[in-house]
Design brief:
Distance between the termini: 13 Å
Oligomer: single chain
Number of strands: 14
CATH topology of the largest domain: D-amino Acid Aminotransferase, Chain A, domain 1
Number of domains: 3
Number of helices: 13
Structural class: alpha+beta
Helix content: 25-40%
Radius of gyration: 20 Å
CATH architecture of the largest domain: 2-Layer Sandwich
Largest sheet: 6 strands, antiparallel
Length: 345
């Protein structure tokens, strides 16, 4: 097949997305496909290709910190232009498969999917509606709670000059809490907060970017993640932390945490997590031709709470979905081929 891989983009997860794109390219070549790698936000969008089986592919690493993108508006303008006309759009229309390896920002909040839908381009992963539903953590958790998926108490807060809302003060007083942007990925800007003064510093950072903050109780228990590919739920992965939170640095630096698959938990608990992941997947509108990853953390009593559902989870060499696929007996190229097949069947 002629496969075009979209990666990079304009979000704080740009480095992660580029690493995923190169990994997907390598796997696609191993499966015999012709590959073109495209970063729609780059000044020169075609990063490589057409590549053919046997061609060498160099990977890229993920930086220890998410990249600073002061020119994010320029990147978005380039991205919009590339996906709405010109040679990149024609390249996408001529592909037999368009693989989305974009994470965060427009790549995961439904913007890119909506543009491709309007252009009549088919692509891997969820549609624009499901991506939008999952991306906003506050609305997603409301949907999950209504569907019977356990979620923690949460307060949404758009920091402005003035008093901290009473509900936020109550959570901090009972603390600790976790404060994070309501719409972001890869655990970027996620903070454990123990006091109002600390919360004020986090809020100032979010306010400077015009964002909204989600505040929820810190859950002290074990952390798990469960991937769904099509109608198949993959083995549970446990994330064994040496830090309070599974943040950006821990996610993308080899050896920062232990990730165990299958998780060393009783079979009935594993089945429960898998059932909850599938319920969350379906509640947010993910169909049988898509894939997702649901993240859970347990409270002090060992009860799992769903933190979020990822519409385009990372596909780097150290990412969680490939690890879960290995636990199911799939090699990395097998996982990528399954994702392609779901979108083209």
């Amino acid at each position: 097949m002629r496969v075009v891989i979209l990666c990079g983009g304009e979000s704080s997860e740009r480095d992660v997305s580029l690493a995923s794109g190169w990994s997907v390219a390598r796997a696609s070549l191993e499966r015999g496909h012709e590959v073109v790698l495209v970063d729609p936000a780059a000044e020169v969008p075609v990063l490589a290709g057409p590549l053919r089986p046997g061609d060498a592919v160099d990977g890229v690493g993920v930086g220890k910190e998410p990249p600073s993108l002061p020119d994010r508006h320029q990147l978005r303008r380039r991205m919009h232009a590339a996906l709405t006309g010109g040679p990149v759009l024609e390249l996408l229309r001529g592909a037999e498969s368009v693989f989305l390896a974009l994470h965060g920002g427009w790549g995961e909040d439904g913007h890119v999917q909506a543009l491709l839908e309007m252009a009549g381009v088919r692509f891997t992963g969820a549609d624009s509606a499901a991506c939008a539903a999952a991306w906003h953590k506050g609305r997603a958790q409301a949907v999950l709670g209504a569907a019977g998926v356990p979620v923690a108490e949460r307060v949404l807060w758009r920091p402005v000059a003035g008093e901290v809302p009473q509900d936020v003060r109550r959570l901090v007083a009972a603390g600790p809490v976790v404060a994070k942007p309501v719409a972001d990925g890869s655990s970027v800007s996620v903070h454990r907060v123990d006091s109002l003064s600390q919360l004020a510093r986090v809020a100032a950072e979010v306010h400077s970017e015009g964002g909204e903050l989600l505040v929820e109780p810190f859950l002290p228990g074990r952390e798990f993640t469960v991937a769904v590919v099509g109608d198949q739920v993959l083995p549970v992965v446990e994330i064994e932390l040496t830090t309070p939170l599974f943040d950006y640095t821990a996610k993308y630096q080899p050896g920062a945490v232990d990730e165990v698959c299958p998780a060393r938990i009783p079979a009935d608990f594993a089945s429960r997590l898998q059932e909850l992941a599938l319920r969350a997947h379906r509640a947010l509108g993910f169909g049988s031709a898509t894939y997702s990853r649901a993240d859970f953390r347990c409270d002090a009593d060992g009860e799992p709470m769903c933190l979020e559902v990822n519409a385009l989870p990372g596909l780097t060499a150290t990412s969680l979905v490939p690890l879960a696929a290995t636990g199911a007996g799939w090699a990395y190229p097998d996982l990528i081929q399954r994702i392609v097949d779901l979108a083209t069947r």
